[in-house]
Amino acid sequence: MGNSLFANCCRHVTDLIFQTHSGNSPDERSPLLPKSPTSCAVCPEVPEAAQCAGAYPDIIPSEAVTGSLQKCTEYIQDLSEAKGEEGTVTVSDKSSLRPGAGAAGPLQQAEASCAVAVLPADLGAGLGDHAQLLEACQSCVKLEDSGLAHRSCCREEHVAAAGGGDAAPGARPTARDHGEGRAALCLDTALAGPDSVPKGREHPSGVALMNGSSPHESLKGEKDARQNGHEEADPGEDGNDQEVIVIQDTGFTVKICAPGIEPFSLQVSPQEMVQEIHQVLMDREDTCHRTCFSLQLDGNVLDNFAELKTIEGLQEGSLLKVVEEPYTVREARIHVRHIRDLLKSLDPSDAFNGVDCNSLSFLSVFTEGDLGDSGKRKKKGTEMEQIDCTPPEHILPGSKERPLCALQPQNRDWKPLQCLKVLTMSGWNPPPGNRKMHGDLMYLYVITVEDRHVSITASTRGFYLNQSTAYNFNPKPANPSFLSHSLVELLNQISPTFKKNFSALQKKRVQRHPFERIATPFQVYSWTAPQAEHAMDCVRAEDAYTSRLGYEEHIPGQTRDWNEELQTTRELPRKNLPERLLRERAIFKVHSDFTAAATRGAMAVIDGNVMAINPSEETKMQMFIWNNIFFSLGFDVRDHYKDFGGDVAAYVAPTNDLNGVRTYNAVDVEGLYTLGTVVVDYRGYRVTAQSIIPGILEREQEQSVIYGSIDFGKTVVSHPKYLELLEKTSRPLKIQKHKVLNDKNEEVELCSSVECKGIIGNDGRHYILDLLRTFPPDLNFLPVEGEEMPEECKKMGFPKQHRHKLCCLRQELVDAFVEHRYLLFMKLAALQLMQQKANKQESSGALENGASPENGTADGEKSESEDGKIDDNVTGLDQVKELAETIASDDGTVDPKSREVIRNACKAVGSISDTSFDIRFNPDIFSPGVRFPESSKEEVQDQKQLLKDAAAFLLSCQIPGLVKDCLDHTVLPMDGATLAEAMHQRGINMRYLGKVINFISKTPGRAQLDHIFKIGIGELITRSAKHIFKTYLQGVELSGLSAAISHFLNCFLSSFPNPIAHLPADELVSKKKNKKRKNRNLGNADNTAWASMTPQELWKNICSEAKNYFDFSLECENADQAAEVYNLQKITLLREISLKTGVQILLKEYNFDNRHKPTFTEEDILNIFPVVKHVNPKASDAFHFFQSGQAKVQQGFLKEGCELINEALNLFNNVYGAMHVEICACLRLLARLNYIMGDYSEALSNQQKAVLMSERVLGIEHPNTIQEYMHLALYCFANSQLSTALNLLYRARYLMLLVFGEDHPEMALLDNNIGLVLHGVMEYDLSLRFLENALAISSKYHGSKSLKVALSHHLVARVYESKAEFRSALQHEKEGYTIYKNQLGEHHEKTKESSEYLKYLTQQAVALQRTMNEIYKNGSNANIMPLKFTAPSMASVLEQLNIINGILFIPLSQKDLENLKAEVQRRQQLQESLKSGEQLEPEDKAVEEKEAEPSMPSAALPLTQSSA
Predict the structure, then answer these.
(1) What is the pLDDT of residue 480?
(2) Per-residue pLDDT tens for 372-384?
(3) What count of Cα atoms within 13 Å lies in the side-chain half-sphere of residue 1065?
(4) Band (146; pLDDT cuts 50, 70, 90)
(5) Secondary structure class of 160 (helix, strand, coil)
(6) Angle 1080-804-605 (CA atoms, 0-180°, nearest 5)?
(7) What does the pLDDT average to over 555-570?
(8) What average pLDDT is seen over the chain?
(9) 1112 Cβ neighbours under 8 A, 6+ residues apart
């Protein structure tokens, strides 16, 4: 990736000084400093949370804000009392934020008014907080309370999002630690001596926060920029006033009084809605059984949708009464559904069945409850003896067993406490008219655990027993009737078992981590499940009949208008941060709802439960509408794709179209609309689900299309409004505006491919659809007569005929190619400028500063800037950048020679403009049926060349680049999905998989790429099998599905030579009837063709598919050969094929190698799920924060990084809710930072959330989850939870064995971790097995001379030393020493350490020998010297764990602390002398930097895996 880094540098040489990440104009960017409205305290970081709170009822800043301010003040006062003078530093530094604020002013003000200044909301420019961070560097104590506020807001947010559950154990105190920040560190540690330095808590804040070129230069730029920012921001006249949002109040506490329980306090925030208090009460253990109630304040009913701050008289300590309200039918149904949910709250069946966005999580099985302070067992290192460390046999290195059952261990909470035998709707529903008039709403039928059968009436007043039985209707109340407002209260009275078990169940429910129960945004399906009991469930039964026919539960009686919802959310305003958050959140929510509805609909369509809108047509051509969504099948209807590959093209078109939709959505141009699109693969069919353009069904397509072409370019029309809208997308998407000829030979201008159609809906919106050719064609797979491909392509056997002509380049490839060309452009221009400069200096020696008369200013400036710079190359590039900008702005000051330079460079790289770098593609080139006018002949020629270059670039740069990254282990795929992702990130389509594998097999370091080769082959086989499975399934009718799938899997994976398919049970099929019944199936007429498949035939097809599609020759004729030749695991292939096809199999042990009976029976196939592709809307602001946080961390600014990432977490929670892949990444990084900064318990808490989220959102055995488990184990160890740490590591190892096998570089890291922990608990022999395995794997993948291997040798030597086997220890340490000496040289500290250790080992060995001799000589009365056998200390084990996991701490010495103290005082004086508003001069900055460097309390290299 060196190149792209270089390119970035070039591109950002000037940009970086002024962060222009999202292209905001300078005046939008400057006011980054917090403005201070008159009544406000300056607390720049509380804002974000507080701000969001306005728009987001789910965020509860509550006491976070006031609390933090108060605590902060108290803390500062404590400091001042304790330390006299130094305390005042803190305060004066706080005030130094704003010119002229008196000492401690803001804080007192804050206490008085409780108001908070909010940042200008537009933090769109990626590194929003730059100014503050920079200030943080200058006034080292500034960010004190803000960190705190951040933290606590963030914590509150979690609670809210998680439905009031987990309150992040330990968040408060740690927030405090973080908040104290650097100042606290300087002051406390300076006084308290070295022991009190929190390990790795801090980082230098003197170092420049720049990723620019040389620090000094960029600092100057940064300085000036900041000063301007200061002037502009202060008066507040820059037009951004409306973005300052002042929040008047902070959180407060109210008392809640509910019937039957003691009143209790609840923390609320003014931004919450009343409804949220309802939600909290419905989740609380003691009030969860109430659903139909209102909240009253002084007898007035509160409006559910009112914000608390709008309610008069509601204040700290107000008493809210819970008042039971009369039921309606709707309320009664909601109540019953809620009770059912409470009864099923621990039951995992919904997760196994893939319903209602439930998914599995097994972390709690391995941690035995929560990890936080509430954990069931707190084991300290002292209790080591009780730990049983022996892993199950199959986890040990070298084991060949791969059991499947361990994947989903049975959780003991799942044997749910039975509260009732049956709760169902009674057959007497609905109540007859005369009973309705008595208030009967519906009837329920219940069988209690004691076997009592009762009928219950739900009436407006509540629930009571009636006298009906199963066969007699008698609605009169029984005696006693036990009338109760809640069903639970009624059941408590009639069933003692219910009473006992229900309360136990609720206790357990509340104890679970909220992340185990919150719904995920998109459904995750499990490919295995245990045999489940099918129990009666009234709600599920009712759902199956009613709501699932398209009525969404929360909008009674009407379907949702998906198109209107999707487009309206896009139209929401997005001027400032709160607006953007609200908009992104709405988009995300509607999207995930739409995806769920579309998936249900697509399954209903394929299962035959939806009537077609054109029922008379042939089945393949049918289209469907359900729940306001339009469904079409992936077949070539009416020969639409005849020239492109027929059905095959029709099958890939939807995914290409989806990629187009994704791209246009990401560009997000106002006024341009795309359809909601979801592509569902289910039972071998591909269904496209789209939202419906208003009015499109009433018109013919020909009339409605006003832009583009409906017949692939024969008739083409255009429209000025569409051109204007699409023009805005053309730059980010690199699409060239071009002219094509229509059937009348007229020129038509387009700014997209011809298939892209523009339709104005009845709602007046401009829609574009059919975006399947948004990106240019891939010429490697599109042979065109008379076109010559570049050499690189021919060498690799391209162009190759593909089965369809819709192969496009990926967006990532287009971007990488343009980036590559930009670099080339900069280099060319820089070279020419250098030559010019050299010539000029010779000719015009007379002119002093090289300003030649003709070009006056521009060149003069240029030369001056040249003199100031050191690095020639950078100068050149800088100059080019400046020049290019000047030419682009066209102010006539540029001399012809310089213009010439740019023109030549543009021409050389194929830019469409000759004054600036601008590469675009014409997506219609080589499109069959599209003709271009004569006038653009030359342009078309250039475009063709550009496409050929791009195709060659993929082969000559991207594939080798991928392989190189795999060699360096910067990319570590573990399964097919992660390999595909790695390819896609580099713009390599999956159809190149064969080429990638071939390239790997020809690479010199082939053995080090073994794992990639193996994953690649596995992926190639399963993808080929999937292609065959798809057509195979289309011929199967519903009743034969499980038999057909098990037969296919037997042919694919079993060693049994001739599996026989069991046709659907004949006893159900009467032969006579069958002949008459005309079979309306989507597939072929013969529904039993699938039964004749044999393993030989299937594998022959797989090999030919691999050859045809991937151009790779497999050398195997059956599963056993494949496993042997390529060293594949059948269980891994089973997992891959199940995930790709949506098959769910029974959780049991499968014997693949039995030659006497087939592996699978039809009972083993539990389900088949849809495989869904959809758009993933992004949280852009949060993502910018996250990226800037990462950048900060990589530069070593841990605390700023931590704050930015906390901020990102807040914003992510706002947009996505509590569960999302990106939140998972955020939590992982936060945990890592907490850990590095010494806050182990907080690290544990964050990482626990990351693991739970990864399991729930990505899957329990996803490679990402495996890594999360490893991180969590490290933090558990640091928190002295040793047995938990081991359990987690064993789980990770098991998952990895299942997903890939043992021979993977990541396994070396995992085994090193396990070995170290075992060493720590003195299980030396076990430890050696793992460490020696790690050593072997490291030697294979990193080469026997690498530093990783040296470290591995050292770890093994330490265990041998503990076992007193000094000879082996010496042998290993010598190996390590040799590597260090050769790699790092004699004088490197690692080499010295190793040689010291060698000396020590030698002494120990000699001492031991002496003792042994003594014993031999003198027998039992020998005088034995006590030998030192060292059991390793936990600290030393943790240190080694940190090293292998790539975390390095640099400890502080006493001297550094003195420097630090001096530094604080020096700055303080400086600050005072500069009168608290001015900035430091650049020279001081440089000095500061030099001083700050030695005093880095913790330089952690947090995100690199380095062992050196």
Answers:
(1) 86
(2) 544 444 444 444 4
(3) 5
(4) very low
(5) helix
(6) 30
(7) 81
(8) 77
(9) 993, 994, 997, 998, 1020, 1106
114, 62 contact by CB (below 8 A): no
How far, in Å, CA of 1333 to CA of 397, rounded? 7
Rounded distance between C-alpha atoms, residue 105 and residue 122, angstroms: 27
Q: Where are the alpha helices (DSSP H) in 853-992?
A: 856-867, 872-889, 896-909, 937-953, 959-968, 976-985
Compute the Cα dihedral for 38, 40, 42, 45 and give only its sign.
Answer: negative
**Calpha distance 801→1110 (Å, rounded):** 11
Name the burial class of residue 1454, with classes exposed (0-12), middle (13-18) and buried (19+) by CB atoms within 10 angstroms of its CB: exposed
Residue 1004 has pLDDT above 60, yes or no: yes
- The distance of Cα 1175 from the centroid of its chain, to the nearest Å, equals 14
DSSP H helical ranges for 477-576: 487-494, 496-511, 538-545, 562-571
User: Is the CB of residue 473 less than 8 Å from the CB of residue 498?
Assistant: no
Residues 395-428: tens digit of each pLDDT:
999 999 999 999 999 876 666 678 888 888 898 9
Band the pLDDT of 272: cuts 50, 70, 90.
confident
Place of tokens 């109210």: 254
Residue 492 pLDDT greater than 90, yes or no: yes
Residue 1105 to residues 295, 750, 1021, 1178, 1431: CA-CA distances in angstroms? 66, 38, 9, 36, 58
Residue type, 866: E
Distance CA 866, CA 860 (A): 10
Cα 908–914–919 angle (5° rounding)?
65
Spatial distance between the Cα atoms of 1132 and 1119, rounded to a whole number of angstroms = 12
Cα Rg, the chain, nearest whole Å: 35
Which residues does residue 252 pair with via DSSP β-bridges, in sequence order?
268
DSSP-assigned beta bridge partners for residue 625: 630
Give the residue carrying structure tokens 């407060």.
Answer: 252
Amino acid identity of residue 854, one-letter, is: E
Task: Provide the 10 A C-beta neighbour count for residue 1257.
Answer: 24
CA 132 to chain centre: 28
Q: Of 507, 477, 525, whose CA–CA distance to 417 is shortest?
A: 507
**In this structure, are residues 944 and 926 in contact, taking their beta carbons and an 8 Å threshold?**
yes
- Residue 1428: predicted pLDDT: 59
In this predicted structure, the answer to whether residue 1330 has a pLDDT above a threshold of 90 is yes
Please answer whether residues 829 and 901 qualify as being in contact, where contact means their C-beta atoms are separated by less than 8 angstroms: yes
In tens, the pLDDT along 503-542 reads 999 988 888 888 998 999 999 999 999 987 777 766 666 6
- Tokens 């987001």 belong to residue: 56
The Cα angle at residue 175 between residues 172 and 180, in degrees rounded to 5 = 130
DSSP summary character for residue 483:
-
Q: Residue type at 449?
A: V
Rounded CA-CA distance 39/106 in Å is 10
Instruction: Using alpha carbons, select from 1116, 1115, 976, 1106 the residue that is nearest to residue 1053.
Output: 1116
Residue with tokens 């005309």: 1078
CA-CA distance, 1122 to 1054, in Å (whole number)?
Answer: 12
CA 1212/CA 1203 separation, integer angstroms: 14
1267/1252 Cα distance (integer angstroms):
12
Beta-bridge mates of residue 758: 707, 768
686 neighbors 556 (Cβ within 8 angstroms): no
The 264-268 sheet, strands edge to edge: 264-268, 252-257, 319-324, 293-297, 300-301
One-letter amino acid at 297 equals L
- Name, of 50-59, 179-188, 359-368, 988-997, the range with top average pLDDT: 988-997
Angle among Cα 187, 193, 197 to the nearest 5 degrees reads 70
How far out from the chain centre does Cα 701 lie? 40
Return the sign of the alpha-carbon dihedral for residues 172, 178, 183, 185.
Answer: positive
The pTM (predicted TM-score) of the whole model is 0.78
Q: What is the pLDDT of residues 1473-1496, one digit of tens each?
A: 654 444 333 333 333 333 333 333
Instruction: State the DSSP H helix or E strand holding residue 687, giving kind and residue range, or none if neither.
Output: strand 685-691
